[in-house]
Design a protein that fits this description.
Two copies of one chain form a homodimer. By secondary structure, chain A is an alpha/beta fold. Chain A contains nine helices and ten strands.
Chain lengths: ~240, ~240
């Protein structure tokens, strides 16, 4: 009988043991084979949660930068032999704003059982803490990498939000966060709701939802290089 | 100084202590005032996680069915007096496919700090386990309550998925799950990817992603009355 592919979230700040539920940790303790973006961070994580096996008995396969399906199939063959495997994310939940989705799809093709485990996700936390529409929301990944069109990108999301009355959210490479905030205040309508969810689950976390008119009048938080989720909703 | 509003997820299957991270449980232990949909389930949850205070010293405010903002403000005044409060969901993460968003928005208006805590979310788990696009996804809440238009609703989501290449997902009242599956097989294109994520985190969890052409040939899982998330992506 085939093993199962367990999808394992990791901590997004602080110590992993504090942020993972006991059921998730117990499940990881039973695994010996892992797939991860970087073996080094994966092994550090396994040590930090006190994995009972010595590291020499643990195998970590690295996801190649360019998806190589033949390679994937070879790794997943360990599952066919009856071993369980864990797909580890670098931070947060695997497959969500993170590689790993192709591996899951391949597992289904190979008739391998897939089991997701619970853990932190900055996107989920951000939608919760925004107070915006949790019945209808769209995640857009990263904005365009071209600095000069951040404003255009934001207006596009604003129009989408006006049309479907949902919450639209995105992330940015953290050193561009302040540019996003400036562009939002400059380009979005005064009534549009704009939420900043920064460094969630850390001691310095910052959560705030205001209309653009209010952001104009307020002191701006320092977001430079701090992991942040931005959310938009029509206030009209 | 004002207290903070903590957003508290609860378990979606099994025992809450297994599914909540230690940092979340520790935070709940320090709270004495809660807001919840139903005081009875909230109190049961607090007992199950062994809240150190006797239940007689814990206050649970119920969210009125029809949002009553004056009422909300009165409850949130406890925060103004310096008490911390916890907003508890019935299952999963508060404010996500769940009431609570209005309370969070009100807290921001009253300049009360909002702190989201990590815990299970069936929607996040479903996106992870679908293997579908985790860089671009849209949650649509419930389909139309009219049975005869489930097929139309599904085609609308399929068109949206073709247009933006993202993953589109929704939930249904659990007794209509089998109707959704039948309508999907009947109405969607053979190449469209359709994912079923059922009873996540339970021992009987079921996760599967296939094209509609493959679903046509496959035995259908029994989803009746089991909490399920459905996900669609264009396979073209």
């Amino acid at each position: 009988m085939s093993g199962k592919l367990y999808l394992i979230p990791t901590h997004i700040s602080g110590h992993p043991g504090d942020q993972l539920p006991p059921a998730t940790v117990e499940c990881i303790y039973n695994l010996q084979f892992f797939i991860a973006e970087r073996a080094k961070t994966a092994r550090r994580f396994l040590k930090e949660i006190d994995h009972p096996l010595p590291m020499s008995e643990i195998t970590v396969f690295e996801i190649p930068k360019k998806q190589n399906y033949r390679y994937l199939e070879e790794d997943l063959n360990h599952l066919k032999k009856g071993h369980h495997m864990g797909l580890l994310s670098e931070a947060g939940s695997p497959g969500i704003a993170d590689p790993g989705a192709e591996i899951v799809r391949k597992a289904y093709e190979m008739s391998i059982g897939v089991v997701p485990l619970s853990g932190p996700s900055s996107l989920t936390l951000a939608v919760m803490a925004s107070g915006l529409n949790g019945q209808k929301f769209s995640f857009h990944g990263y904005l365009s990498p071209k600095k000069e069109i951040i404003g255009k990108d934001l207006k596009k999301l604003e129009r989408a939000a006006e049309k479907d009355r949902g919450c639209h959210f995105f992330i940015e490479t953290p050193y561009r966060n302040m540019q996003v905030l400036e562009a939002a205040v400059l380009n979005l309508k005064p009534s549009t709701l704009f939420s900043i969810q920064c460094d969630l689950l850390s001691k310095n976390s910052y959560s705030m939802t205001r209309s653009i008119a209010e952001w104009k009048k307020s002191a701006k938080p320092g977001l430079h290089k701090r992991p942040t989720v931005f959310l938009i909703q029509s206030g009209g």
